[in-house]
Amino acid sequence: MSKPLLLALGLGMTLAAHAAPESVALPLPVAQGAAPAPAGVPAMPTTPAALDPAQLADLRHRYALWQALPAAERAAVHAAAQRMAALPPARQQALREQFASQDQRFRAGWLLGPQLGQWFPKLQGLFGYLPAGQRDAALASLRQLNIDQLAQLSLVAQRTPPQERDQVRSQFLALAPGARDAWLKEHVGH
Q1: Phi first, then psi: what are they for 21, rounded to 5°?
Q2: Residue 61 to residue 55: CA distance in whole angstroms
Q3: Which long-range contacts (CB under 8 A, 24 or more apart) does 32-41 make?
Q4: What tens-digit pLDDT sequence spans the chain (190 residues)?
Q5: How far apart are CA 21 and CA 162, in angstroms?
């Protein structure tokens, strides 16, 4: 994973962590001298009353994703946010703009944390559009995978034709954790 993307992820996830699901605590105000939001990105309102329903829903969604991250990944995101905060304002702004220029699906994948975020663009074919009943199970299953398994699953996702994605995903999600290695090896062709 590239350092700039990890830093941007750290910033985004840390800001998301400040939002509570029921009583929204907005991100801390931008420090004096800090870079403004990237061009084309509206500034975050400074009071909960100023949030429109879509912004409030987005903050709640981000907070729920933050809460779902394993403690080790939250710690990695906090460390990345600290490294980001230590950078000169111009470098922070450049990293924010670089991240904002990425495809929305790519940026959204990073909300799943450092480990899944780096694999999400390749996994999106299988896991980007899930029926509501499969979302929690899919995320739990993906979080249990190690790096090698995620790499194999990304190959499966890339090789699976669109008309077979639902079937392949359902097969994968139905597997017991101990059966995943054999299934992945069979589907990757090793």
Answers
A1: -65, -35
A2: 10
A3: 33/89, 34/89, 34/92, 35/89, 35/90, 35/92, 35/93, 35/96, 36/93, 37/96, 38/93, 38/96, 38/97, 38/100, 39/97, 40/100, 41/100
A4: 455 444 445 545 444 443 333 333 323 233 333 444 555 555 666 676 778 888 888 888 889 888 988 899 999 999 999 999 999 999 999 999 999 998 887 888 888 899 899 899 899 889 888 888 888 889 889 999 999 999 999 999 999 999 999 999 999 999 999 999 999 999 998 5
A5: 35
Residue carrying the six token digits 């100023």: 50
| Six token digits for residue 30 | 């931008």
Report the C-alpha gap between 171 and 169 in whole angstroms.
Answer: 5
Q: Which residue in the block uniquely carries the two structure tokens 């495809």?
A: 103
